[in-house]
Amino acid sequence: MVLSLPEKVVFVILSVISVYLTWHSFGQVAAVIRRGNGALRLNGLARRLFRALEVTVTQRTVLNARPLTSVLHAAIVWGFLFYLFVNLGDVLEGFLAGYTFPGTNGLADVYRLLADVLSVAVILSMIYFLVRRFIAGDPRLNFRPDILLHADITAGGIRRDSAIVGAFILGHVGARFLGQALAIARRGPDAFQPLASAVGGLFSGGHPALLEVGEHAMFWLAIGLILVFVPWFPRTKHFHLLLAPFNYLTRPERRSPGAMAPLPLDDETIERFGAERLEHLSRTQIVDAYACIMCNRCQDVCPAYAAGTPLSPAALEVNKRYFLRQHGALLASGGESPVTLFESALPPEGVWACTACAACVEICPVGNEPLADILAMRQHLVLMEGRPPDRLAGALTRAERAGDPWGHPRGTRLDWAAGLDVPLLADRRSVDVLYWVGCAGVYDPAGQRVSRAMIQIFRAAGVDFAVLGEEERCTCEWARRSGQEALYQEATAALIDTFNRYTFNLIVTQCPHCYHTFRNEYPDFGGHYAVMHHSTYIAGLLRAGRLKLQKWDRRRRKEVVTYHDPCFLGRYNGEYDAPREALLALESVTQAEMPRRRGRSLCCGGGGAQVWMETRQERPINVMRLEEASATGAQTIAAACPFCAIMLHSAVDSAGKPAPDNGTPVRVSDIAELVAGRLSP
After folding, report:
1. Which helix (H) or strand (E) holds 465?
2. Regions of the chain with pLDDT less than 70
3. Which residues contact 343 (CB under 8 A, 6 or more apart)?
4. Cα 262 to Cα 522: distance, rounded to the nearest angstrom
5. What is the pLDDT of residue 681?
6. Quick one: pLDDT at residue 644?
7. Which of 90, 97, 483, 586 sits CB 3.0–4.6 Å from 382 for a disulfide?
C-alpha cells in the first residue's frame, strides 16, 4: 500500500507534532528522575546492555510465576518488540512505491509469518487480560481496603488506564492485522499470512476500490494511534515496556538482594539521611515507580501483607507512580513534594511492618526494589526524627550500651560454654576457623544449644577453631535494617579492628544475618573475610567424611523433618542445598518439603528487626509458617537461623505445640543440633 501525496504530507506533520510532544513528556520524566539522589549506574555498559536485552527478550523474570498469565504477557512483549519492525516496514512501504519490507527473499516470508502469528497472539492475549481485570476480577490485582492508596487509584485509575491501554493495543494491532486481511482480499491469499488470509476470505469479492480505502483507513488507525499514544506513553502504566529494560540497564549491581550501601555519615555537607519525600529517594528508586508493571506479584509474596499489616510493596510503587503523574511537572521544575512518602506512599505502620525478607525484590519481573524504599524511609524516621518504635528503641539502646540487643554484660558472653573448655582467639592468636557465635548463640536458650552442638561438631571433626568470647559484640545488622546506620557502622568499625588483630582462614557462623553482613556488606568498609554459614560447613565436613554418624536402627521409624529456608541464607545468599545435604546424610531422617520453599520460602517474621518489635498482625507470620510445616506431617522443623528458631519456637508455644497427623508434637531444632545428636560416640 502506497500513501497518496496528501497522506504523506499529513503524516509528516503529525509525526513532527508527535515527536515534539514526546520529547517534552519524556524530558519531564528525565527531569523527575534527576531529582533523585546518587547516579544511575552505567559502568560495564556492554554487560548491562546484554542483561537488559536478555531479560527483555527472554521474559524470564516474568515467566517465573503465574504460568498462563506470564506466557500471555510475554506474547504481548514479543509482539510489540517485533512490531518495531512492522511499523517501520509499513511506513516505508507507504512512502516508497514498489518497495516491500524487508525485501522479496525468504527473510520476507519469515517476517510476514511472524507478523501474522504475533498479531493474533497479541490480540488474544490482550483480550485475556481485559477479561481477567474487568470481568473475572482477579483478586490478585486488588488491594485490601486498609491499604493506603492514591486518590486516583481509589477512584478507579488503574482500571481506567488498563482500559485505555488495552483499547490502544487492540486498536493498533487489530487495525494493522485487519489492514493486511483487506490487502489479501484485494490481491489474493498469502501462504505466509495464514491467519490474515483466513480473515481476508470474509471480504473476498468485495469491490477493489472499497478494499483499498479500507486498507488505507486501517493504516491510519494503526499508525495514527502510535503517533497519538507515544507522547502520552509516560503517563500510562505501560510505560514499563521501556522503563523495565532501562531499570535493568542502570540499577545497582548488589552483592546480594537487599544488600545496603553505606551512608556517608562523616560528610558534614550532607544535611539529610534517608527519605522523607519522594525526591529524597535514589534515582533508581524513582525509576522503579515508572518501571512498575502493577502486577502485584510482590504483594503476593509479602509476608507482612499476608499477616494483615498496612504494608503492600505493590501499593508503595503504584502510589509513587500516581504521585509522579500528579506532581511530575512540579518535581521536574525543582519544586518540593507537597506531602511526604509516609502520607502518599506507605504509612509508618507499614514501614515498620517489613521483615526485610527481600521476597518482593526476588519476585519482581522488572527489577524493582521496594525494600530499598522502606529501608530509606526507616533511616529518615530513626536518624532524622529519632522515632523508632518503643520496643525497638529499647533494643537499640541496649546494643549501644552493652554491645548486644539483650543488654547483658560483656563479661557473660562465654557463660553458654561453661564446662566446654572452648579456646579463645586471644590465647591462640592464629587458628583455621574463627567460630562466630553471635548474640543469639550466646544469650538465647535455643541458640545456646546450637552453639554447644557446634563445639561438639568441631571437636568430632578435629577442627582448629577458637571464639572471640568477650571481644565479640553484635554486628547490629538488624539495627541497620531498622534505620540505625550509625550504630551499625560503629559496630562494624570495632569488629573489623578486632578481626584484624588476629589470623584465621575462615569465619563460621550459625547466624545468616551475621553471615550476610560479613560476606556482602563488610567489604564496603574494608573488611574482606572468607565466611561460611554453619550448615554449609557441616555439609562439607560430612562430604569429606570428617564426621562419623550413627547407623540407623531399621527397627525404628524415621523422623520426618521439614526444612525452613531462612531469608538471609536463601534469598540473600543463594544457599539452599547445603542444609538439605546435611539432613540427607542423616539415615534416621526423611525430609518433607513445604510448598513454599527455597527462593519462595515464607519468612519466619523475625527479619528486619522484627524480633525486637511488636508489630500488630492479624495473622502472625510465624504462625502461618508453623501451620505450613505442620501440614507436611513433620515432627521436626529444621532451622538454620537463630531468629527463625526464636520465631518458630514462639509460634509453637502460642499454638500449644500443634501435632501433625502422627500425633507427635512439632519441635524446632537447628541443623547443627540434628547432626550433633547423631554423631558416633
Report:
1. strand 465-466
2. 656-665
3. none
4. 10
5. 80
6. 97
7. 483
